[in-house]
Amino acid sequence: MRKIPVKKIIEAVKQEAIAANLELGEDMIQALRRASQLEESDIGKDILDRLLENAELARANGIPICQDTGVAVIFAELGQEVHIVGGDFVRALEEGIRRGYKEGYLRKSICHPFTRKNTGDNTPIIVHLDIVPGDQLRLWVVPKGGGSENMSALYMLPPSAGWDGIKERVLDTVVKAGPNPCPPIVVGLGIGGNFEQCALLAKKALLRPVLEPNPDPELRAMEEELLEEINKSGIGPQGLGGRVTCLAVQIKMMPCHIASLPVAINIQCHANRHREIVL
Amino acid sequence: MSSSELIELGTPLATSEVERLRAGDRVLITGVIYTARDAAHKRLAELIEKGRELPFPLEGQIIYYVGPSPAPPGRVIGAAGPTTSYRMDPYTPKLLEKGLKGMIGKGKRSQEVREAMVRYKAIYMAAIGGAGALMSTVIKKAEIVAYEDLGPEAIRRLYVERLPAIVVNDTTGNDLYEEGKKRYQII
In A110-257, at which residue ranges do the beta strands (DSSP E only) sit? Predict the structure, then answer.
């Protein structure tokens, strides 16, 4: 058994929570640069250039890319040969987020559903844990803002709906959302599984670097088809009209029940933040 | 449609000034503006309903829908980009009736809000959503004026210099989101 002390986990999560919010990933910078070259609308192009400037300013001034530093989601893959020592694993993840949001001057955005009283430290966090072979711990720290999460949707389609039915729902979701989720967006699409699994697939699909092609040629073709369709909508950067509404569609798919065709559409804004930690 | 020149706007806004602006105009706002988002709107609407005094005068003012991140040492404010506006829609017509002249946010407004803007002569402007670090640099002063208990949702008085925004809804009923989308739609 390989031992990993919780102290090490707390420190790593703290640092990466701050970094995720202050430093836009190189994948998104490349995607925004490419979008700026493609965009035909003057206002749209100006917005894309300002988003690139915003990313530089955030890094230089040490303040978040976006004030909505989100709900803290952590995907964890815990090797079964790992022994966590010195404390509770999930509490350590939460403590890392608590410290990161305090010391990094990140916004605390978590509240009671009805009283709306803020919990004050951005906890509780949301953890998805998988036990995998090996002796490593891999974590993805994924802060997610409310604006784009609010525009997401889940459908339990009849199997007869097929790929055409899925496309229709995705386009409908994106068009209805319009300017609200801060386009240009990335669409995470989960197909199959069941009710909760397809939502997780959609969210996990978004962990792939944004311009990296899907390794599965069938899914890659579906992603390209859908991207082209979405970008015909004319919504454009910030919804003010243009060619670039969506930077990428990212799909994860798995088998489902013979009666079902579950589809989850997770909308991601251009502040597409995800940091990977390997311990 | 509007000109592509930048229009300098000072606050508070006069009705005549507001009426000249058109959807698509790009403006730079200088002066005092107020922040308010979900929870603060709820409280303001309750005060109006009870006929009580508001924590700041609405006449001619601009409200910016933002919940900034905390200011790191040595800075006025943290990241401060706009939040999505539709959540303020249920409360907005009441505020417009009381003299609010401008709103800055991002995203579509309801039919009721758009009609109220025509009726009460007010405009809605979009700032760049997600450009929190950039927007932070135009905010020169920030102080909490009400509802400190709401944390990021407290009402703040900001002094801004040349805050960039685009007019989305004007006093004649135009909507830049609809016009912009139509122009680039491929059917």
Answer: 126-132, 137-144, 153-157, 185-193, 246-256
What's the predicted TM-score (pTM) here? 0.94
Angle between helices A26-38 and A42-61 (to 10 degrees): 160
The most distant pair of C-alpha atoms in chain A lies apart, rounded to whole Å, by 58
Q: Is residue B1 part of a domain?
A: no
- Domain locations in chain A? 2-22+65-144, 147-273
Residue B104 within a domain? yes
Please give the pLDDT value at position B4: 65
Mean pLDDT for B62-82 is 97
The Cα of A159 is separated from the nearest Cα of chain B by a number of Å equal to 28
The distance between the two most distant Cα atoms of chain B, rounded to a whole number of Å, is: 52
If you measure CA to CA, which chain A residue comes closest to B83?
A147
**Burial class, B121, CB count within 10 angstroms (exposed 0-12 / middle 13-18 / buried 19+):** middle
Considering only alpha carbons, which residue of chain A is nearest residue B42? A116
Instruction: Tell me which residues of chain A have a pLDDT lower than 70.
Output: none
> What dotted CATH number matches A2-22+65-144?
3.30.360
pLDDT in tens, A145-203: 999 999 999 999 999 999 999 999 999 999 999 999 999 999 999 999 999 999 999 99
pLDDT at B1 over 50: no
Across the interface, whether the CB atoms of B133 and A55 are under 8 A apart is answered yes
Q: Which residue has the tokens 């040629």?
A: A217
Checking if the pLDDT of B3 tops 90, the result is no
Q: List the domain range (segments joined by +) for residue B149.
A: 6-184
